Amino acid sequence: MTLTAEEEPGLDDEGPAAPLPRRSRRSRHRLRRFVVVPAAVLLVLGSVPLGIGWYLEHQLTSKIGRIDGVFRQLDASERPARPAPGTPGAKAVNILLMGTDRRSDVATTGDDAEAPAWVPGAQRSDTLMLLHLDGSRQAAAVVSIPRDAWVPIPGHGYGKVNWAYSFGGPSLTVATVEQLTGVRIDHLAVVDWTGFAELTDRVGGVDLQVPDTVHDSANDVAWTAGWHHLDGRQALLYVRQRYGLPGGDLDRVKRQQAFLRAVLEASLHQEMRKSPRMLYGFLDTMAGSLSVDSGWSSTEMAKLAFSMRGFRTADLRFLTAPTLGTARIGSQSVVRLDGPAGAELWQDLRTDRIDQWAAVHWRELTGDVVP
Fold this sequence. Notes:
- The chain is of the alpha+beta class.
- Helices cover 36% and strands 20% of the residues.
- The chain is built from twelve helices and 15 strands.
- The protein has helices spanning 36-47, 50-60, 163-181, 193-202, 232-240, 249-267, 270-274, 276-288, 298-307, 339-350, 354-360, 362-366, and strands spanning 65-67, 93-100, 125-133, 140-144, 150-153, 157-160, 187-191, 206-210, 214-216, 221-223, 226-230, 290-293, 316-320, 323-329, 332-337.
- The strands form five sheets. Strands 1-12-7-2-3-4-13 form a seven-stranded mixed sheet, with helices on both faces. Strands 5-6 form a two-stranded antiparallel sheet.
- A hairpin with a 2-residue loop joins strand 14 (323-329) and strand 15.
- The radius of gyration is 19 Å and the shape is globular.
- The two termini are 30 Å apart.
């Protein structure tokens, strides 16, 4: 396959990430956004009694920010068709979880947002994951799409998937992912990194294992081999690292997935469920950091959460779009996706066969070691 690149101003390889600032949330809002919030909101709300769940929904959804026009701007004739009623996948829900690399002194997500979430040409999507909830609500998958994946962007030729956000904001990002996967996206959710750090602290930190000692040259942090108990600030450093990891951005995807699982497991532990104060504080932090498409009503969110009341984190699969490794396209370092393997994954996801896909690919999934 021959790949070509069109050089775009401001979209060349990014340099080392700046060190994390030692400032309060009010003095500076770092807008690196992560995906733990929408998944955890649904799973935690779905795990509490119905009456409490509806009360929490009423109290918390007013804090969630709204993003207008995400789906209204899409060409309906270009979008993947929804599965026909009664067919596999017809009752599934697909949520695009996204973050950007823009930084701002004020919030752009949640109910306290004071700046626009998207400024043309100012940022790219930093994290991109597709959350698939199957029709039975007994299985789910989080599929990461590497930010450097080289894909067709509608109206712009080929480019890194994270360029779509810079070119056309949330709508073009949705259109790009739909074209790549053939999966109809139902909703969009964005969370900022400050809320992500606070969330980690809310659950008392998380435990993660580093198999080999690595050095983050961008932030001058050494991660020694062994188990680490991470607070919010440490967790940010862990999931943001690219430099010093053998697989670069692909290894960072593995770290993000490992962290997401750890936070979900911590948020669903028995002590959290037994303590209304602890539960509300956790959900309040999440809701205040979350923005979703304006078409996702509070009632719909509550119904979806209740439909997942029997779901457990053991039923959640963490996957990555199949790749063929990295390559150079002009000055760009890119990730090449495996077209045939990806087509198989997306087809099984569209038809609620993600468990079957994971069973076939069990060895390669369990063989991945988190760096």
